[in-house]
Every structure is written in C-alpha cells, then in structure tokens.
C-alpha cells in the first residue's frame, strides 16, 4: 500500500510543478486575472484524464500480465527522461518565459483543451499510471484507489499552492516554484529508478 501512496504523491507532485502547457496557462491567468478566476482550472485534468484513462486501461487490461513488466521498464526510462527535463527547467528557470502566454481567457474548458493537447497525460497513463493501477487493483482494489487519490490530491494541492504563490508575490512565486521543480526532478529520478527496477523484476 505504501508503494502506491508514495508513487501517487511523487508522480502527482511532479506533474503539477514541472513546466508544461497547463502550468503555463495557470500562472499566466493568475497574474492577469487573480487566483479566484484561475483556481477552477486546476481541476481541468478531471475532464481530460477520464476518457484517456478509460481507453488506455481497456487496452492494458487485455494484454498479458508479463507485458506490464515491459511497460514498467519503459515507464522507468520515461520518468528518468521527465526528471532530466525537470532538472534542465530548474537550471534555466526564467519567469518571463513561464508567463509568456497572456491571451488565453480563463475558464475550465480552455484549460482542459490545453491539457488535451499536451502529450504527457497520454504517455503518463500508458507507461506509468495505467500499468501500476492495474497491478495494484489486481493485488487489492484499495491499492488502485490509493494511487489515484494520492496522485490527483497532491497534484491539485500543488497547483493550488503555485497559483496562490504567484498571486501573493510575483518575486517570491518564481523562486519557490523553481525550488519545487528542483525537488520534483530529484523525486522523479528516484521514482524512475524504482520503476525500472520493478519492471526488471517483473520480467525476470
């Protein structure tokens, strides 16, 4: 159970703070319109991830269990790639680039469209969350529930914190967000190695 909790917290935190289209949208809208109008967009992944998760899980549930081990192996490599990307973002963090998107109107639907066009949720569900959710559910349904609750709970909490930081202080927000990105890079690297090791164990 603790493995699924830690996995959900690690991957959810990294998904929230790693620079990408949705985070850029949230920060730009916070600086332009304030936190009250931006905060509902935090929950836009609930709209986009549902169909993606159902489609991917329906496919993965039909493949042999041994294939899940190979997906975990590939997923570990993918997570290490994300860790490297987060490390590069931490090293060259630039607030001007982060808030360069200024013209998107605030609403949950537009935030969902931004997230739909982002390839990371599809890769994340195919290579990390999907295989791990099936594995945990087969062991005990509570494991799958813990994974989902911890993943989305920490992701929404982290995005909310980022919104409040950028609303409260333009100078403080970027510094704290950069530190969070650095933390996520380290967490992703550890998790990626663990996922890779789990894939090797499942295969051999």
DSSP, total strands: 0
Strand content: under 5%
- Major sheet summary line: none
- Helix-strand pattern, N to C? HHHHHHHHHH
Q: Quaternary state, please?
A: single chain
- Average pLDDT reading: 78
Structural class based on helices, strands and sheet pairing: mainly alpha
Question: What is the helix content?
Answer: over 70%
Radius of gyration, in angstroms, nearest whole number: 17 Å
Through-space gap between termini = 23 Å
Form type:
globular
Count of alpha/pi helices:
10
Describe the structure.
- The chain is mostly helical.
- 83% of the residues lie in helices and 0% in strands.
- The chain has helices at 2-17, 21-33, 35-38, 45-60, 65-91, 95-98, 108-116, 120-139, 141-168, 172-203.
- The longest helix has 32 residues, at 172-203.
- The protein is globular.
- The model is unreliable at 98-106 (pLDDT under 50).
